[in-house]
Amino acid sequence: MQVSPGAVIVGRYLVERKIGAGAMGEVWLGEHIGVGYPVAIKTILAEGLDNPEVVERFKREALLLGRIRSDNVARIFEFVKDPEYGHVLILDFVEGEVFSSALTRKLSVEDAVDIGADIVSGLVDLHGVNVVHRDLKPSNIILEKRRGGKLRAVIVDFGISRVMKKEGELEEMSNLTRAGALLGTLEYMAPEQMLDPRNVTGGSDLYAMGAMLFRAVAGKHVFGNLNEIELTRAKLLQDSPPLPTGRSDAVAKRFEEIIAKALKKKPAERYQKAEEMLSDLVALKDQIRLVAAGAKAGAGAQRATPPPLPNRATPTPPPVAAVPPAPPPLPVAAPPAIPIAPPAPMIAGPASAPPSSLRLGSDSMFPPAPGYSKKALVVAVIVALVLGLLLGGLILGGGGAPPAAGP
User: Which pLDDT belongs to residue 359?
Assistant: First the structure.
């Protein structure tokens, strides 16, 4: 019986709507009835249910994917057999944009490096359990947007994957996406896989990885839009052209080198292990972070530096106000006068009371006459005083007794 919306698988998975289909199977969005988390339900088409080989490969795919633990590979929850719908794979539902839809626009080198590192990390985990995908292409990759806007690339379809046994023999897994001898998608298929679908190794997946990233950045396939015959001839006879990033910086040049190595025509010249390619992509991611940090620091320094002043003549400084002259010094107080005793009388006789004593002031009060010394001035003053005293004595003593006659 064919699955349809509303169907319930093994009593606990409710089918909601179809989200993908291939030549031999379909993928549906569903929900776990008990806890409510979303799941992807992968079923075999009705015409394949009666084919024991298809059913057996489907079982092996489920058993193999159950051993894979990877952040970049869709996780299997359960492999069940429903009495009405047959064998069913219950997978982790990864919600996001299909990588092929993102390729309607060119991606930057930086975005391609981030996405490429995620996908190759998934290949490291796949190859670690001896699985070669064989049909790695953009429509088998989901870009899930996580918290903070960061994308996580997840490999979600393993329809024609193969298991590499220890002795080198390859077992084909379920072919749910394509029927036919040439399994895979020609644009992303490695040259050796075109010659012999059984002649695949991990290097074949890395070629497809390089072809996807070339398409993402260049906006076209490695050899352009050729028909199948022309494309087959080009892949088998020609080396891949260089990736035209349109940039000349160190990051772009290094990315071009990584893609060129992944797309080598001869498997021996490619990356031999997914770990090698992952190491180069992670190192380039670190380089991108350093470049971005340097650019951010430079922009911050430019914002902190004030813009230069316009080119103009040096401005004249404003005039300085004139300082008023200092006031003249205040006159210094004269020292106290020294009293000068009156000279003794030079003529005996009754003397009258002397005139009031005189005081000599400072030189500034009695400036010397021009041409006279200070000493001469003092002498002149004393002489004048003496003459004044003598004259006063004669006038006052004029009425006295005459001098006695001599004997």
Answer: 42
C-alpha distances in Å from residue 126, one per residue of 121, 279, 342: 9, 16, 138
Residues 101 and 248 in one domain: yes
CATH of the domain at 22: 3.30.200.20
The model's confidence at residue 310, banded by pLDDT at 50, 70 and 90, is low
Q: Look at residue 8 and tell me if it is in a domain.
A: yes
The 10s digit of each residue's pLDDT in 105-118 is 999 999 999 999 99
Quote the pLDDT of residue 344. Answer: 47
- Does residue 169 have a pLDDT over 50? no
Given a contact cutoff of 8 angstroms between Cβ atoms, the answer to whether 244 and 252 are in contact is no
Q: Rounded distance, CA 307 to CA 136, Å?
A: 53
Whether residue 131 is found in the same domain as residue 73 = no
Q: Percent of the chain scored above 90 by pLDDT?
A: 48
Q: Structural domain of residue 34, as residue ranges?
A: 1-93
**Same domain, yes or no: 193 and 283:** yes
The better pLDDT of the pair 266, 64 is held by 266
CB 187 within 8 A of CB 211: yes
Q: At what angle do helices 202-218 and 109-128 cross, to 10 degrees?
A: 160
Among 213, 215, 342, 315, CA closest to 271? 213
Residue 231 shares a structural domain with residue 253:
yes
The closest of 220, 223, 210, 217 to 257, measured between CA atoms, is 210
One domain for residues 152 and 252? yes
What is the chain's mean pLDDT, rounded? 78
pLDDT at 405 over 50: no
Query: Where would I find the beta strands (DSSP E) of 229-386?
Result: 338-339, 359-360
pLDDT higher than 60, residue 27: yes
Per DSSP, what are the bridge partners of residue 39? 30, 92
Task: Tell me the CA distances in angstroms from 356 to 49, 342, 353, 389, one per residue in order.
Answer: 158, 9, 9, 12
Instruction: Tell whether 149 and 263 lie within a shared domain.
Output: yes
Q: Is 390 inside a domain boundary?
A: no
Cβ-count burial 176-187 (b if 16+ within 10 Å, e if not): bbeeeeebbbeb
Q: Are strands 13-21 and 25-32 parallel, antiparallel or unpaired?
A: antiparallel
Residue 176 inside a domain? The answer is yes
Same domain, 168 and 36: no
Beta bridge partners of 162: 132, 172
Does residue 268 belong to any structural domain of this protein? Answer: yes
